[in-house]
Amino acid sequence: MKMFRFMLVLACFLVSFFAEASRFIDRNQTSLSTMQDPKVPLVAVVDCGSVSQVELFRRARLWLVQALANEHLALSDPQTGDLVGRLRQVVTLPRTENSAGGVYRFRSTVVIECANRKYRIQITRVELEDNGNFQPISMETYCQKMPSVCAELDKQLQGILTALQHDVTEYKPF
User: Fold this and answer.
1) Do residues 83 and 111 touch, judged by C-beta distance below 8 A?
2) Torsion angle of alpha carbons 108, 110, 111, 114, nearest 10°?
3) By CB neighbour count within 10 A (0-12 exposed, 13-18 middle, 19+ buried), where does 32 fall?
4) How far is Cα 67 from Cα 50, in angstroms, rounded to an integer?
5) What pLDDT does residue 9 have?
6) In the chain, where do the E strands start and end?
7) Are 38 and 108 in contact (CB under 8 A)?
8) Residue 104 CB neighbour total at 10 angstroms
9) Residue 29, strand partner residues
10) CA-based angle 103:165:37, to the nearest 5?
């Protein structure tokens, strides 16, 4: 009887643990199209095999400096392996029968954490820069009104995640 109670308590614990874990996993988004909460970042975690922490940080920092172009790094800490910068994306849509087209400017925060031969990139705080008054507009609202712009932005942000993965894992030393 004691064994049955123990198994029942263990089963309840495991169910509650996995329910909580699935909530956490669901909050790590990989696409803007599924964005329920704009404060939850787009996330990618990549294992880089036998690369040392210092080398991984160096590769990620090189990639981020090139991706940011004229921006500056807000944080670059080699001891913790953290990198933070602001990223600007420009989405240009051509005029079609169904769309007026236009040029849309977005800004976001890029956070890269390097630890245990892995890195995690998070693209957070994606906001539209309105050219008229430079006030940020909620992405949740914007994606409902302009799904084609959000789809193109999502494609570009996915390209950023892919480019980082390629440039860091396939880095060719000279």
Assistant:
1) yes
2) 170
3) buried
4) 25
5) 54
6) 42-47, 73-77, 82-93, 102-115, 118-129, 136-137
7) no
8) 20
9) 42
10) 55
CB 19 within 8 A of CB 6: no
Residue 30 CA to residue 45 CA, distance in Å, equals 11
Structure tokens at 44: 């990618």
End-to-end CA distance of the chain: 67
Amino acid at 76: S
Residue 39 and residue 41: Cα distance in Å, rounded?
Answer: 6
* Alpha carbon distance 37, 156 (integer Å): 19
Backbone φ and ψ for 88, nearest 5 degrees, come out as: -115, 135
Task: Give pLDDT tens digits along the chain (174 positions).
Answer: 666 665 555 444 444 444 443 333 333 445 554 444 555 568 888 888 888 888 888 888 888 888 877 777 888 888 888 989 888 888 888 888 877 778 888 888 889 999 888 899 998 888 887 656 566 667 777 788 888 888 888 998 898 888 888 888 888 777
Query: What is the predicted pLDDT for the residue at 39?
Result: 53
